[in-house]
Amino acid sequence: MNVISFLLVFIGGGLGSLLRYAIGLVIKTMSPQFPYATLIANAIGCLLLGLILGFLSMRSSVTNTQNLLLAVGFCGGLTTFSTFTLENMRFIEQGQLFNFFIYSIGTFVLGMVCIYVGMILHKQF
Predict the structure, then answer these.
(1) d(C-alpha 124, C-alpha 26), whole Å
(2) What is the gyration radius of the CA atoms in the chain, in angstroms?
(3) Where are the domains of the chain?
(4) At what angle do helices 97-121 and 81-93 cross, to 10 degrees?
C-alpha cells in the first residue's frame, strides 16, 4: 500500500459519493416512505461494477490503479450498504416487516441482476 493507492480510492470514492448524493436529491421527491434512492444507487453501482470488471477482465494488463479508482473507490462510494442496513433497521423498528423483506430481497436480487447485466453489456462495447 502506498499513498497513490489511498489517493485513488479517495478520489474515486468521493466521485461515487457525489453521484450517490445527487441520486438521493433527484429520487427523494418520489417517496419519502421508501428508500428508493438507496435501492437505485446500489443497482447503478452494481451495474457499473459489472461493466468495469468486465472491461478490466478483457485487458491483458489490468492495472491496480484502474481497479482502485473505479471498482473500489467509485463503486464503493456510490453503493450504500451502511445506509441500506440503517434503513432496514428502521423498517424493523417501525414494524414494517413487509417493506423490510421487499427492500432486502429486492436489493439483493436487483444487485445480482445488475452485476450480471453489466458483465454481459461490457461485451457489447
Answers:
(1) 29
(2) 16
(3) 3-124
(4) 160
CA dihedral of residues 93, 99, 102, 103 (deg, nearest 10) = -70
Angstrom distance (rounded) from CA 101 to CA 67: 33
pLDDT digits (tens, 9 = 90+) for 97-110: 999 999 999 999 99
What type of residue is 48?
L
Of all residues in the chain, what percent carry a pLDDT higher than 70?
Answer: 97
Distance CA 90, CA 80 (A): 15
Query: Burial of 40 by CB count in 10 Å (0-12 exposed, 13-18 middle, 19+ buried)?
Result: middle
pLDDT digits (tens, 9 = 90+) for 15-47: 999 999 999 999 887 777 889 999 999 999 999
DSSP assignment letter at 62: -
Q: What is the pTM of this model?
A: 0.81
| Interatomic CA distance for residues 123 and 55, integer angstroms | 8
CA distance 42 to 14: 16
